[in-house]
Design brief:
Blueprint: E1 2-6, H1 12-24, E2 29-34, E3 41-42, E4 52-55, H2 60-66, E5 71-72, H3 81-88, E6 98-101, E7 112-116, E8 126-128, H4 130-142, E9 156-160, E10 167-174, E11 177-186, E12 189-193, H5 198-210, E13 216-224, E14 227-234, H6 246-259
Parallel strand pairs: 1-2, 1-4, 4-5
Antiparallel strand pairs: 2-3, 6-9, 7-8, 7-9, 10-11, 10-13, 11-12, 13-14
Length: about 260
């Protein structure tokens, strides 16, 4: 495949690992600026292969779709929380979430977890403090502030009580198999490590066997007092690498698309 990469998005070591792998295996790639929100590439891409894959901001999906690139972006937009819940049920950390438009979220009286129901990047899911959220909601819904993310009062969000999490782990799934994995948080502390206990592999494999939202995607899981749970899924093209094995990911995608 021809790999289209966004400049100045990846961390220095991630960039070195990604471009180093592509160069080492003779895989063509090009580097572009990406215009925010619309995903236009500067300069325009001139792919050297029939198949093209994009890695960078989620907005690149617009150009990939317009150019009819295959695979382009393994987009998960239509596989939102409601769809995930139908397939994974109580395997999901926040299976007890309420789903409602942003404008209908009541004023918070205690710390509360919120995130968009889809992989839209309208805002990052997290635990919001009441004062911060209530002020933000007022600005978006009542004052019509535009934060450049298309968030509006009609945006569907999920809301639930915060959960206790001991550690969080990212798995990259390609063609039904685990390509690589990484710890990215221990408790509240960001911590990257490639050494992940096999029980997480077994849990993720069971989830993937039950259902896959795409041929390639990222699934974040966590350890809780109630066992292992799914935190969320993300579009693989726009997900940080953490301590994952970038070479393994690149070659897994190349093998899958080559076989396809």
């Amino acid at each position: 495949m021809h790999w289209i990469l966004q400049e100045n998005l990846f961390k220095e070591n991630e960039w070195a690992n990604l471009t180093g792998t592509l160069e080492r295996f003779g895989i063509p790639f090009s580097v572009h600026k990406v215009i925010p929100f619309i995903g236009e590439l500067v300069p325009p891409a001139q792919p050297q292969q029939e198949k093209v894959v994009c890695f960078g901001s989620y907005s690149m999906r617009h150009t990939a779709r317009a150019q009819r690139w295959t695979p382009g972006v393994y987009d998960l937009f239509d596989k939102d929380f409601k769809v995930q819940l139908q397939h994974w049920g109580e395997r999901m950390l926040n299976f007890d979430s309420r789903i409602l438009p942003f404008k209908d979220v009541p004023l918070l009286a205690e710390p509360t977890f919120l995130r968009p129901v889809d992989d839209s990047k309208y805002f990052a899911g997290k635990v919001f403090m009441p004062e911060d959220f209530n002020d933000w909601k007022h600005k978006v819904v009542d004052l019509g502030h535009d934060y450049g993310t298309s968030l509006s009062g009609e945006t569907l969000v999920q809301i639930c009580n915060p959960k206790t999490i001991h550690g969080e782990y990212r798995f990259w799934i390609v063609n039904g198999e685990i390509a690589t994995r990484s710890m990215y948080k221990r408790g509240d502390k960001v911590m990257y490590a490639s050494d992940v206990d096999e029980r997480f592999d077994r849990f993720v494999q069971a989830c993937v066997q039950a259902w896959q939202p795409h041929r390639a995607f990222v699934i974040d899981v966590c350890d809780t007092p109630h066992g292992l749970k799914i935190v969320e899924i993300n579009t693989i093209n726009a997900a940080g690498f953490y301590a994952g094995n970038v070479q393994s990911l690149v070659l897994s995608l190349e093998d899958m698309e080559g076989a396809g």
